[in-house]
Amino acid sequence: MNKSSKDMVFFKDVIAGYKRSRLWKKLAVLELKSRYQGAVIGSFWIVLALALKVFMLSLVYSMVLDAVFEDYVMFLALGLLTWNFISAIIITSGTVFKKSANFLQQMDLPLSIFVYQNVYREVLSLIMYQLFAIPLVIILKGWGVISWIWLWALLGYLIIILNAFFVCMWLGWLSARFRDFQSLLGSLVMIVFLVTPILWPPPPEFAGSLYFQLNPFYHLLELIRAPILHNQVPVLSWYVSCGVLLFNVMVCVIFYRTIRHRLVLWL
């Protein structure tokens, strides 16, 4: 098998996993339903929890930061719903293969099936978040705020979801190999949350500083915020986000051949 054929093995796994979409979609929906089993409004707690969090944080931080409430609540809502998706992917990637150990130990299945399941479940939550965020922006700014530039935000979500897929894959490998890594992920997510402009807007005089420009999470958030809040296409953020996507793909391609047959032994 030549080098190019070996590099294609990972993509064959991704394609084979996608072809079993009925399986991972069903697993994702069942997992999401099980979270809210017995609740009166079911999975709509996802939307309600986000709305309550945004409202209470906006009341406090708009006063602390001396910001206009209407502007800040939109800034926070768009940033928080996007961050919720990113952080959920990072944290749950620690168990994406561990919880599927029975499947992997008894059947020869593509590894990507369980990554698809994890990402699809969080995408469903992300879609439900939009039931709160988009109406909020329209209510505060009116129908005239809608612009074709918003389509760039939709493309931004696509880049974020693609990054989430490949990150979930290699973080899942690391967590299966090194048991302590899963605990580390939660701490890292909290640190990134505090140092990334999610609760607070970057000061205009420092927006172009390396502190923000070297933070990939800042650029991922800008893919969504800039088109909707400022009617701007964040060109630099697109370059950085595509670069991060390329990095994640390369990590998966390079290490897949080594990990594919060892993963079961680590579970």
Describe the structure in your own words.
This protein is an all-alpha fold and 267 residues long. The protein has one domain (3-266). Helix content is 76%, strand content 0%. It is built from twelve helices and no strands. Helix 4 (69-92) runs antiparallel to helix 6 (112-141), helix 4 (69-92) runs parallel beside helix 7 (150-177) and helix 7 (150-177) packs parallel to helix 11. The relative contact order is 0.13.
Beta fraction of the residues? under 5%
Shape descriptor? globular
Quote the distance from N terminus to C terminus: 28 Å
Number of helices: 12
| Tally of distinct domains | 1
Structural class, by secondary structure, is mainly alpha
